[in-house]
Design brief:
By secondary structure, the chain is an alpha+beta fold. The protein is built from 3 helices and 3 strands. A 3-stranded mixed sheet has the order 1-2-3.
Length: 106
């Protein structure tokens, strides 16, 4: 599990570096500033790590996206309890303003 976490963090870091270099500095209703983008990338990484590290959630099919502090969870889980747990873990991450749950129970 540690290998998976390290690979995930490495890939997210790589995407972050590339994206920051291509993103402008101005913020608008539909565009994030570089700082906002970086903050969202950090939140996404923290939420993913929280979900992957939880012993009660044994799922790898949860996707996490963040835009201006709002976290979107999507993908598949086995139970409603698993979906609720993922939402709970995401809400606990400092900086998360809101969590949108689009998880589907198989």
């Amino acid at each position: 599990m540690n290998k998976l976490r390290l690979i995930t963090i490495f890939l997210l870091s790589f995407v972050l570096v590339i994206s920051v270099s291509l993103t402008g500095c101005a913020s608008g209703k539909k565009h994030e500033s570089t700082g906002e983008f970086f903050d969202d990338a950090v939140l996404t990484t923290k939420v993913k790590a929280s979900i992957l590290g939880d012993s009660r959630l044994k799922v790898l099919q949860i996707d996490v996206e963040t835009y201006k502090g709002v976290v979107q969870l999507s993908g598949f889980v086995d139970t409603t309890d698993a979906a609720n747990r993922a939402v709970e873990l995401a809400r606990r991450v400092r900086g998360v303003k809101m969590v949108n749950n689009s998880l589907i129970v198989k």
